[in-house]
Each structure stands twice: as structure tokens, then as C-alpha cells.
Amino acid sequence: MKTRQLTIQCEGGLHLRVAAQIVKQMRHRQSTVHLRCEGCPRANACSVFELLKLGATKGTPLEIVAEGPDEDAVLLALAEVFDAGSGI
User: Fold this and answer.
1) Which of 10, 25, 27, 76 has its CA 20 to 30 A from that of 70?
2) Where are the beta strands (DSSP E) in 23-76?
């Protein structure tokens, strides 16, 4: 299991299009991935609904937890989504 700390940079926070990008990254992955923020239950990275329930706004620190054979690739792919300002 590996973890990575990231911060939401998108002005709109973790909204529908950002959540969809995360789910898209997970489609062909073998690892189990969850996102967590302080005071929130963990969210399955394969579920747009669970990601939206986090209610993460700009500046919210997130922890990504990946477990599985491609966990390094998953963490890198999701970091790219967030490092690019979520591409939005």
C-alpha cells in the first residue's frame, strides 16, 4: 500500500468533471484506490458519487491511498490530474 498527499487546485474544487477524470484514470487499473480528506469518509476512486460526497474545495488536502500491482502508476496518474489544476 502506498499513499500520496495532494491539494485540490481547481477553483471549483472536486466537482463533476474532475471526479470523472479520476474515474477515467481508474478504468484499466488493477489497484484499489481511495481518497480521503480530514473529517470525511474515504471515497472509492472508481465512484463519481463517492468522490463528490467528499465536498472537497480548492485548497483541501487529500490523501490518495493505492493498494495493488500498479499502485505507483495510479498515484502518478492521479497526481498529474491534480498537479495540472485538474485540467479544468
Assistant:
1) 10
2) 32-36, 43-44, 61-67
Q: 14-52 pLDDT, tens per residue?
A: 999 889 999 999 998 999 999 999 888 899 999 999 999
- The CATH code belonging to domain 2-87 is 3.30.1340.10
3-class DSSP assignment, residue 85: helix
Q: What pTM was estimated for this model as a whole?
A: 0.88
15 is an active site residue: yes
Cβ-contact 74, 33 below 8 angstroms: yes
CA dist., res. 85 & res. 67, Å (int): 25
Q: What are the cell numbers at 22?
A: 479520476
